[in-house]
Design a protein that fits this description.
The complex is a heterotrimer of chains A (405), B (271) and C (297).
Chain A (H helix, E strand, L loop, with lengths): L46 E10 L2 E11 L4 E5 L6 H9 L6 E6 L2 E2 L10 E4 L11 H11 L4 H14 L15 H13 L5 E5 L7 H18 L2 E6 L2 H7 L2 E6 L2 E6 L1 H6 L4 H6 L4 E11 L2 E6 L5 E5 L9 E6 L5 E3 L10 E11 L3 E7 L5 E7 L14 E5 L5 E4 L2
Chain B lengths: L6 H25 L15 H8 L1 H34 L6 H13 L2 H15 L5 H26 L2 H9 L4 H30 L2 H6 L7 H9 L5 H34 L7
Chain C lengths: L10 H22 L2 E2 L6 E2 L7 H10 L4 H8 L1 H33 L3 H16 L2 H12 L4 H8 L11 H26 L3 H8 L4 H29 L3 H6 L7 H11 L3 H33 L1
Antiparallel strand pairs in C: 1-2
Helix pairs in contact in C: 1-13, 3-13, 4-8, 4-10, 5-8, 6-8, 8-10, 9-10, 10-13, 12-13
Classes of the chains: A alpha+beta (405), B mainly alpha (271), C mainly alpha (297).
Chain lengths: 405, 271, 297
Amino acid sequence: MSRPPAPGRAGKTAKPPEAKGGGRRLNIGAVRSTFAPWNDPDAVPLVRFEGVTKRFGGQAAVDNVSLDIYPGEFFALLGPSGCGKTTLMRMLAGFETPDAGRITLAGQDLAGVPPHQRPVNMMFQSYALFPHLTVEQNIAFGLKQEGLPRGEIAARVLEMLDLVKLTPFARRRPDQLSGGQKQRVALARAVARKPKMLLLDEPLGALDKKLREETQFELMDLQVELGVTFLIVTHDQEEAMVMADRIAVMGEGRTVQVGRPEEIYETPSSRYVAEFLGDVNLFETRVETIEHPMAHLQAKDATAGFYVLDDDCPDPGSTVWLAVRPEKMRISLDPPADGARNVLAGEIWDIGYTGDWTNYIVELPGEKLVRVARANSQRFVERPIGWDDKVWVSFDPDAGVVLTS
Amino acid sequence: MRRGPSWFNLVSITLGFAFLYLPIVLLVAWSFNASKLVTVWGGFSTRWYAALLQDEQLLAAAWVTVRVGLLSATIATVLGTLAAIALVRGGRFRGRTMFSGMVYAPLVMPEVIMGLALLLLFVAMGFDRGFWTVMLAHTTFTLSYVAVVVHSRLVTFDRALEEAAQDLGCTPAQSFLKVTLPNIFPAVLAGWMLAFTLSLDDLVIASFTSGPGATTLPMRIYSQVRLGVTPEINAVCTLLIAVVATGIIIFSLTQKWRTGAAARGPRQEVS
Amino acid sequence: MTSRPRSRAVILPAIWLGVLFAFPFLLVFKLSLSDSALAMPPYAPQIDWGGGLAAIKTFFAALDFEMYARLTSDRLYLDAYLTSLKFAAGGTLIALLVGYPMAYGMARCKPATRNILLMLVILPFWTSFLIRVYAWVGILKPEGLLNVFLGLLGLDPVSLLYTPTAVQIGLVYSYLPFMVLPLYAALERMDHTLLEAAADLGSPPWRSFWQITWPLSLPGVVAGCLLCFIPMVGEFVIPDLLGGPGSLMIGRSIWMEFFANRDWPFASAVAIILLFTLVLPIVLYQRQQARALEAGR
């Protein structure tokens, strides 16, 4: 992935998106650049969902969702199927009407505006390429609707074909294209009209794993190049984390948590979010004492005690869940040095070797299973951990997150 | 892998198709028989076809039938397509059950009852029975067949295509004309052909709803056939079969060509 | 939940069918309650639209069930009904026995062959019904082809034309495609690996057939049977061309009452009864189709 050095994003003004930082994604996980209009009280959102609700036969598919999306953002709606993410997007495109609430785009209330008059375009999950038209006719379709002069349409089509590298395929029909090519035609067709916002419904869902990874980066490059705000719907957490500036995790029609990928991963707001994004070990515990900056938790089945940072920890006596990611746990055959906190003794239950990582399932007293992931940073290990070995699992106090719901 | 057909399968297929086609083949053969008798082969002859051309009543009936067929099939195609759209795209509207009942009932309704009901309507309305009443009657019962054919195509038609068209700036009506119609067109055409052949074929409903001066070909054939086997009728039948078969062959060839052209096109392998 | 139709497409066909399909049935029903008359149109009473409310009252007062009473008292019509049901049931059964092996064999052919065979099943449907029935006259008549053939085999000639057997043959012949198509659709859809799985689990072929193929093809069997039975009951052309006096079917008796006897009210009553006879199978069929459509999604 090579990215042309773009002018760094200065400060927090939500200005034309082409100013968006080029290098900001190069060190994922670390602090990114300063593109964060959502933290700026003066920034004006491009799209605003206010208390939007949609019911299907009494069942709320989208339940009182409020959400702001800023110009230039790459925003992901993430959730399992049936969580309402697609319905939310379709309401923005105009294919569903909210039962309550308001959607505004660039200050304009969209209520009553039919799909064909909305300045957004959508890339459909099935791509929805018109089978009776060629690639270039597909791309030109929306431009013709606008009544642009012929020459302008032709020029724009060529430009789009070049953008998605499909120039040699201009005269093909959709059924003569591979899955990846279809996906690119759908993309070109949707962006040809220069929409204020591009909606992508599971854009990579139909591609195989390898192509999907390549396409993720292509989409990111394209977004920077076009300077269009992207709203993507996906059930694939990796896809959302790699591409999006911000993610809204949805469940049962509501937005459960909205934030940058690393925020959501490292500080999930609930067990639902923690479990949906990646693997997590959860311990049901009671808060014993709080001695700043440490909180002491006791497992509900009294098999272990934990020490974690007391951020957001409720008062002693409350029931909380301690969430620890597998990669933040250590595993060893020897007991850790004295004074180490959060040390659990157990027995290997199962081992899953994936090449780069090895996942150990460890059985703790009380038949509790935890998952520990270890990077295989060495080719050979002197004393490999084997089945039924007695092992020690430990983690640092700042590795755990205290969850109240 | 599917196992191939066994000898039992082959025998039942062969006998079944022999049963279906033998009478038609015989009819065609008889029409070229110089002899009037079905059991005697008097040599190849086209004399019955020549006799046909002299039969003005028959030719008039054929002309009536073709006009009724063209007009009623066209109207039925429009109405049947609209009905299919309403059923597939209309959602759950009030009276939907009633509507779908009306659309599909003519498919299973005995022709005698359809004919009787329509006749009573025309009498009650004081219409003079003739060309127009037959045309109206044929439109009514053939539109159901068009609706079925178009319905089955519309159900499998990806709704996202219409939404994509609207997303790209089409009004619902434009998206239908520019995207849906071109894609369901083969079904619409098939519906038209079906409606046309059904109209061409109908005896019972036409007999009820027709009047003096509007005798259709099947009515004419029927009145001749009741008198026994006549070679001229064999010739008419053969011509009718030929017309329909040609139509079907042309239709399926164009369909093959369409899909074949797409399949033959250059295809680049990617990944 | 019901609402206004989302599509305006419904308007035109609804009006058309309302006027030319639903309304005429009300007329048939009304007429079946009227009396015959020697006039044109040949029934009474008729509404005297100039007479106001009183005339409409007299009109309704004059309606009665006399025609239906006559139906039950006249052996001829009862027999015609029973004959129709008998012929339709027999024809359906024979069509099933002939059609099932055909459909089964077709489903086991190679895809290319299958499509050609499918086309061949549909093709007769496109050729004139009347013509196809008429062709049998030439085969079945005493000096027809069948007897020539039997003679060559040294067998006695049979006289089939204008007998119930001829009607039965005609019915099976004409409606066989209606039986084969749904059967084929059901059998073709069937996953062949099911039979392999059954064989793998030790089931002999004949048992696999009865325990797997047959139950899975039942929707097709039901659809095919109803699709044959319903129109067979009301059939007119076949008994008229091939049948004799012993095979008076109900469709033909409506025709006769109407055209020969000019007894329109009576013909209407016969038609209404026929309609009621068919309501049950028609509803069954529509239900089954709706279920199949649901399952197909």
